[in-house]
Amino acid sequence: MAVSETLETKPSTGIKVIIVGAGFGGLTAAIECVRQGHSPVIYEAFPELKILGDIISFGPNAGRIFHRWSNGKISRKMRELSIDLTDYGFNIHKWDTGEIVINQKTPVKDETAPVFNGHRGELHEVVFNYAKEIGVEINLGHRVENYFETEAGAGIILENGTKVEGDVVIGSDGVRSKARTLVLGYEDKPKSSGYAVWRAWFSNKDMLADPETKQFCENGDTFNGWIGPDVHFLFSTIKDGSDCCWVLTHRDEADIAESWSFPGYLKDVYKVLEGWDPMCKKIVSKTPESVLVDWKLVYRDPLPTWVSGYGSAPGHGRICLVGDAAHPFLPTSAQGATQALEDGVTLAVLLRKAGKNNIKGALRAYQEVRYDRVRKVQKTGETTRDMWHKTDWEVVKKNPETIQFPREDWIFAFDTEKHTEEVGDEIIANVTATAA
Ligand SMILES: Cc1cc2nc3c(=O)[nH]c(=O)nc-3n(C[C@H](O)[C@H](O)[C@H](O)COP(=O)(O)OP(=O)(O)OC[C@H]3O[C@@H](n4cnc5c(N)ncnc54)[C@H](O)[C@@H]3O)c2cc1C
């Protein structure tokens, strides 16, 4: 069956899936539900689509998912918006001298599992439009206020009091998820990770006008990182050098909520960069202060469960969390959005396998398939940060490869759709037997 000229879908399962939130997690869950034969409908609080955020990364394990959408049509669009480092690679500098300790080569392109680093808002728009194109109903300007479920169905209540009913509800409402509290009864207590990032995305026109920085904008895209004691600074130029973005991770014990929109101040950034290669300050000085974001990185203990009525959670097993609502990531893993995608794919496959009469089995199996992998990937956010922030430069001098950004097969080569097709039936059978 085909819902568009290019997208093949499985026969209808008759499962109505209500999805809360139209971030990458919610949109991917919806698109994958269409592929697997379910009927998704999205409710999103934002009244309109806005190009929000700055740089976001998708590893090859996400590229593999995008590539399956309409035979590569979507991944080709995303490719045009993403950094191309085929020739440039990644220059890793020592923080004080500025010397390049290694040029980490870009892996050979795999068209079936591409990597995307680009503007979150622009890439999000591509995915959003694709979901609409294949017929997903997206209701913008509808904040979800509450959730309900019985043995026979589940649904949401919107802020205007409207009740929407379906077979299953996916709470993909992001890092400050209301579903987490309302559905699982879990009191979320974020704690400071001891770090924060300043981040910015802007046009390169001032960078081009400066003879010292124009080298980064003249010959296509670039990627440079300076690694220092408890601080790292990553700087990319993108769109053939016309835009740029940087992210600086540093110590910060401030105990406030994380946000994509807290204003940042250049004077604070300069303080952290004292004693650093002067090029870093030069780059930062081109930033319009209005686009500088100060984002506190907080930790959350792993949720005991992502599914209602499972483990310690109350309920009937028809509501679950995906993406940041279930498992926020530190940016140094570069896997937060990718793991939200893997969730949506896994869930849609399991719902098809378990069928309309065993939603509980599908959701429990979803948690079983995903939980340990997500925990392991989450930890890489800390290990990469610590590897960079506690660098032993004597070791790096002898062995520069030790400072490269880790690219691990168990993360990148993973195909969550294939894996779920292989293990799904057995896991559904196991969790269903235990539930009976
Ligand atoms: C505005 C914004 C900017 C971001 N910028 C970046 C960035 O620059 N770089 C980066 O790496 N990551 C960024 N992220 C986070 C990144 O998108 C996520 O970590 C990742 O994509 C996982 O996505 P998600 O779908 O789980 O959550 P999110 O992308 O956070 O999506 C959650 C969605 O749920 C909606 N929502 C929340 N509560 C309700 C409710 N009660 N009712 C209905 N809808 C609700 C939100 O409006 C949001 O659209 C940003 C997220 C947001 C929301």
What does this structure look like?
Keywords: FAD, Flavoprotein, Monooxygenase, Oxidoreductase. By secondary structure, the protein is α/β, with parallel strands linked by helices. The chain folds into two domains: 16-84 and 110-189 and 300-390 and 408-435, FAD/NAD(P)-binding domain (3-Layer(bba) Sandwich), CATH 3.50.50.60; 191-299, D-Amino Acid Oxidase, Chain A, domain 2 (2-Layer Sandwich). Helix content is 34%, strand content 23%. The mean pLDDT is 93. α1 (24-36) runs parallel beside α9 and α9 crosses α13. Bound molecules: flavin-adenine dinucleotide (FAD).
Overall radius of gyration: 22 Å
Kindly report how far apart the N and C termini lie: 35 Å
Main β-sheet description = 7 strands, mixed
**Which of globular, elongated, flat, extended, rod-shaped describes the shape?**
globular
Name the bound molecules: flavin-adenine dinucleotide
SSE order, one letter for each helix or strand:
EHEEHHEEEHEEEEEHEHEEEHHEEHHHHH
Number of strands: 17
Strand composition percent = 15-25%
Count the domains.
Answer: 2
Order of strands, main sheet, comes to 5-4-13-14-15-12-16
Query: In which range does the helix fraction lie?
Result: 25-40%
* The CATH top-level class label of the largest domain: Alpha Beta
Mean pLDDT value: 93
What structural class is derived from the secondary structure elements? Answer: alpha/beta
CATH topology group of the largest domain: FAD/NAD(P)-binding domain
